[in-house]
Structure formats: structure tokens, C-alpha cells
Write a structure and sequence with these properties.
By secondary structure, this protein is an alpha/beta fold. Helices cover 38% and strands 23% of the residues. Its EC number is 1.2.4.4.
Length: 105
């Protein structure tokens, strides 16, 4: 759909894979992180801080569980409720513009 994207698997938050993130910072202007957990203190914040500290001009959009109470439900229902189901991820990538975008999970 006109979106240039790549997928990177960040298996852990600490220590960050700085070599990988340097590559992403040089290659992309928009990064979408998706995490099955809390956004506050999560990988998206760590990635955004890394890019900022290194001086990369990269916009980071993080999808995951916000600072809110989450009801009970199936994983699919909860992913949709919290905005990181398949449709939400696709929408975030498309809304990133037709610019280059990386998706990290």
C-alpha cells in the first residue's frame, strides 16, 4: 500500500541492541514499536530515548498498554482494546505517511 517498512525483533529492552538501533536510526524517520505490556517504562520509551541521545531525527510511535485499567477478555479483545491488534498496527504504519517506517516488537 505504498509503505516502505521493515520489521525488527527487539527480544529484550536491556541492554538495548545499539548496533541494530543505529541501523534503524540511519535508515528510517518513523518507528512504530509494539509491545505486549505497559508503554510507560517500556521498549518504546527506551528506543525514543536512544534516538534522542544519538541525535537521530526519528519519530517513535509506541503501541501497547497505556496507563489505564484493562478489563478482562481474550488476548485478541484486549489487544484491540489497547490499540495494538493487527488492524491498529496496520493503521499506525499507514498513518506514518508514505515515508519509510520500521516496526519493532
Amino acid at each position: 500500500q505504498g509503505v516502505q517498512a521493515a520489521h525488527y525483533d527487539l527480544r529484550f529492552v536491556k541492554p538495548l541492541d545499539e548496533t541494530l538501533l543505529d541501523e534503524v536510526g540511519r535508515r528510517f524517520r518513523h518507528v512504530v514499536t509494539v509491545e505486549d505490556g505497559a508503554l510507560r517504562g517500556g521498549v518504546g520509551e527506551a528506543v525514543a530515548a536512544f534516538f534522542n541521545e544519538r541525535g537521530y531525527d526519528v519519530r517513535v510511535e509506541s503501541l501497547g498498554i497505556g496507563d489505564q485499567w484493562v478489563e478482562h477478555g481474550t488476548p485478541a479483545q484486549l489487544h484491540a482494546l489497547c490499540g495494538y491488534d493487527e488492524e491498529s498496527i496496520l493503521r499506525a504504519l499507514l498513518e506514518a505517511g508514505r515515508s519509510s517506517c520500521a516496526c519493532g516488537a
